[in-house]
Amino acid sequence: MTASGDSCDVLIVGGGLVGSALANALSRIPVRTVLVEAHDPAAFAQPGFDGRATALANGSRRILEQLGLWSTIAGDAEPIDSIHIGEQGRFGAARIRAEAEGVEALGYTIENRALGAALWKPLEDAPGFACLAPAKLATFTGGNDAVTAEVDVGGRALTIRARLLIAADGARSSVRRSLQIPVRENDYGQRAIIVNMTTEAALAGRAFERFTPQGPLAVLPLARGRAAVVWTLGHAEADRVMALGDAAFRDELQAAFGYRLGRIERVGRRALHTLSRVRSDTLSDRRTLLVGNAAVSLHPVAGQGFNLALRDVATIAEIIADDTASPGDRADAGSAQVLARYGEWRRDDQRKVAWFTHGLIRGFGARAPGLGALRGLGLVAFDLVPGAKALLARHTMGMAGRLPRLARGLPLS
Ligand SMILES: Cc1cc2nc3c(=O)[nH]c(=O)nc-3n(C[C@H](O)[C@H](O)[C@H](O)COP(=O)(O)OP(=O)(O)OC[C@H]3O[C@@H](n4cnc5c(N)ncnc54)[C@H](O)[C@@H]3O)c2cc1C
C-alpha cells in the first residue's frame, strides 16, 4: 500500500482467528480487502494464538472445507470420537460416540497456533488482499460513501478509505467503543486454567467433561498424544492453583480429574482466563460491522465462540458475494442493505447461543425439563453433538435459522 489515500472495499480490523478466517472468505470473491493487525502474524504470539486449543464442530469443518482450508488444518486436528461426561455427584456417566451419532467425528480439537498458521498461510498470496501488520487502527470516521481510517504502521500514519469496516478486534473492541455501541456483560466469577498435558493412557479420541463443585473440567484430545485441559475454578482458587509448582499442580489436577487416563505425566505452561460474557447491543453502525468476539464473547468453556463466529464469517462473505454479483451500479460492500441483512441474519443465532450458554453455566438447565442432561453435555459438547443440537433447537424455537451456503457445504458463489 502507498502512503495515504488508499482505498479498498473492506477494511478488517483484527487478524485473530476470526479476522483471518474472514480475510480468507473474502479473498474468494472480487473485493479488495485490507486487514490491520496489531501483532506480527508471523510470530503467532497474538492472544488468539497462544497455547489454547479450539474444538471445531462439524459445521465449522464444512465452512473450512469450502474455503479450501481444511486439508491444511486436518493434519493438526485431532478427531473427537467420544465424549465422557463425568459423574461427580450430580450426573450419571454418559458417553456420546460419533459412531452412534452417525458422524465421522463429533468434532476436532486443534491448537490455536496451528489453526492460526493454517488461516494465515493462504493470505500470503490471496487475490485482492493486503495486510498491514504490525499496525494499529488509531481512529476512524464513518461517512456517507466510505469509512476513513487512520492506521498507525510503526509510528507512520496511513489513511485508508473503505466501503465497509469490519471489527474483528476482540471482546474489548475499540471499534465498538468508538461507535459507543452499548454492551451487556456478565461476570461469571470464574477463571479457566488452560494447560496441555500428557497422561499414562492415550486419549485415543476420547474427550472428558468432569463436573467439580468449583466448575467443569474439560479434557480434550490433541494431536501428538497430548490433551488440552480447561479447568474452571472460582477466582481465588484459580489464583491459588496457578501459583503452585508443576508437581503440586499436577497432583491437584489429578485429584480433580481422577485416574481415567492413568497418571498425569507432564503438564505444560499454564494460562489463566477470566470468564465473562460480553454481548454488543447491535451488530452494525455507520458502515461498520462487528464480528466474532467483538460482537459476542461467550464463556470459553462452552467451546462455541469460534464456531459461532465462523457462521458470522460465512454470512458476511455470502452477503457481500451476492451484492457484488448483482447487476447494475458498482457494488457497495458497506451499503445500508448489507449492514441490515447481516444484523437480521445473525442476531438470532448469536442471541440464542449466548442465552443458552449463559443458562448452562448459571445452571438453570437443571430446572428446565429435558435440559438437565444437556447441561452436562453443554459445556464442551453441545455444539458437537447432533442429538444435543436437535434438543437445543427445540428448546430455543429453531435456533439454527437459515444457514449460510458455506455452512451447508456449498460454494460461496
Ligand atoms: C480458554 C478459551 C477456550 C476456547 N475454546 C473454544 C473452543 O473450543 N471452540 C470455539 O469455537 N471457541 C473457543 N473459544 C473462543 C474463541 O477462542 C474465540 O471466539 C475466538 O478466538 C475469538 O477470536 P477473535 O478473532 O474474534 O478475537 P481475538 O482473538 O481477541 O482477536 C482480536 C485481534 O484483534 C487485534 N486488534 C485489536 N485491536 C486492534 C486494533 N486497534 N488494530 C489492529 N488490531 C487490533 C488483536 O491484536 C487480536 O489479534 C475459547 C476461548 C477461550 C478464552
Based on the model shown, name its key terms.
alpha+beta; 8-stranded mixed sheet; 413 residues; FAD/NAD(P)-binding domain; globular; 9-stranded mixed sheet
Radius of gyration, taken over Cα atoms and rounded to an integer in Å: 21 Å
What would CATH call the homologous superfamily of the domain at 6-76 and 110-184 and 279-408? Answer: FAD/NAD(P)-binding domain
Distance N terminus to C terminus? 28 Å
Low-confidence stretches: 364-371, 393-399
CATH topology of the domain at 6-76 and 110-184 and 279-408: FAD/NAD(P)-binding domain
Share of helix, binned: 25-40%
Q: Profile the largest sheet.
A: 9 strands, mixed
Query: Class by helix and strand content?
Result: alpha+beta
Q: What is the strand tally?
A: 20
Shape: globular
- Helix count, per DSSP? 12
Strand-residue fraction?
Answer: 25-35%
Mean pLDDT value: 85
In this entry the ligands are: flavin-adenine dinucleotide
What is the CATH level 1 assignment of the domain at 6-76 and 110-184 and 279-408?
Alpha Beta
- Based on the coordinates given, report the CATH architecture of the domain at 6-76 and 110-184 and 279-408: 3-Layer(bba) Sandwich
Brief account:
With 413 residues, the chain is of the alpha+beta class.
